[in-house]
Amino acid sequence: MSGFDLSAILTNPEYISMLLHGIEMTFIIYAGSWLLAMSLAIVLLAIRLSTFRFGDPLVAAYVSYHRNVPTLVQLMLWYFGIFTLLPSGLSNWLSANNAEMIFAVIGLGLCQAAYFSEDLRSGVRSISPGQMEAARALGHSYVSAMRFVIMPQGVRNALPPLINHSTSLFKNSSLGVLIGAPELTHAVKEVENLSFRTFEIYLIATVLYLAASLVIMGIGAYISMRADPVGRARA
Amino acid sequence: MIHDMIAIVQDYWLLLLIGQYPNGPLGGLANTLILSALSIALAFPVSILMALARLSKWRLLRWPVTAVVYFTRGVPLLMLILWSYFLVPLWTGADVPSFVTMLTTLVIYQGAFMSEVVRAGIVSLGSGQMDAARALGHGYFGAMRYVILPQALYNMIPSIISTFVSTIKDTTLGYVINVPDLTFAANQVNNQLLTQPFQVFLLLAIVYYAICWSLTYVANRLERRIARRRAGVRVGNAAAPAPVTPKIATEQL
To answer: Among A51, B5, B68, B186, which residue's beta carbon has the most beta carbons within 10 A?
Structure first.
């Protein structure tokens, strides 16, 4: 093996297409699990805020499980465990349709929903009850008070932890490689095995991950700046 | 199904607890806990030095450490483990066990994250403490050693415990370089049984849950007690103020 040579990888069309495929799959896992997590988090928050008696302890148990069990173990439980318990028709269909990707999205999404729902809840809880009373007094119904008065303020308060956790979710998408999802880390291992240029391919992967994380943080910072009227007035 | 899980515990408890220890390397739950405790113990001094460097007035100290912190925050832990697995044997020129590789990675990773906690702890004390200590004749290091750090670190105890919890969860990633920890042992059990993967991994999840939940519980209790003490209220008083410890999101995994 000769010295450091990035072009050995960057000019090889086979390696490039493997990397691009990995990037695409990582993006699909990230986007899929983020959307799943955020929609589930909103449902969990709604259950917690409702008057349904068993809702609160149920959601608390859900959050506690997903925060205290390592994400990798959750993924393994999904892919190696729950996958085998499914009826054969469903598991055959999954095997034919990239089961690793589907379980990576489900596992990461359900796990992240716990974090997102806690972020949203602490954001909403920081709004004083007077806001709700005032909105109701002005003729808003409960739902419309939530929609137009409480949630806009609550989500704004929850933005910093939501951004942090969105970045963590992106980094955790690399765990997909451990259950065989063909994402970026997987592509990197493949290129490494073919080219033996470990240093170069790790460097490329690191730069890609770092750049994407910084972009996510940057988008988050932009959104919080736009969402904050005081900051906007200052800018 | 519960019977299956009890049978697994009865048959394999020793493997899950200490791995193949007398006949092979220490593994299982014992190794997970030793690895996490060692990484925290080593990452702690590293994080204090990094925090001091980030608060230093010399750019030569501040910039490289800031870069390291941003780097570790932006790159997946899995990628860092792969880097160490490749670089540590290359630099030391020795056949390094995967345990040491994992320990190195975790010290750097958690050191960077804890340094943010330490930094926030020092900043939240306010500059008056430093000014007063200097006015009383302490040098910079004396003031840090006797005035700033004791206060900052005391307030940080809950954050350190939650970092310990994240470290326990991080050690599962050692699986990728075959560190013989609890997850590795569970996979061995699964490979021997072959027919009960759900039971094995559910058991694994329960064990991790029990450990992490108890530690989180302790951290929350301590956090409330420290908040009360900082507010100058006797422990046991009903009117507890909101916690004032710096809330830094430790990395989730």
So the answer is: B186
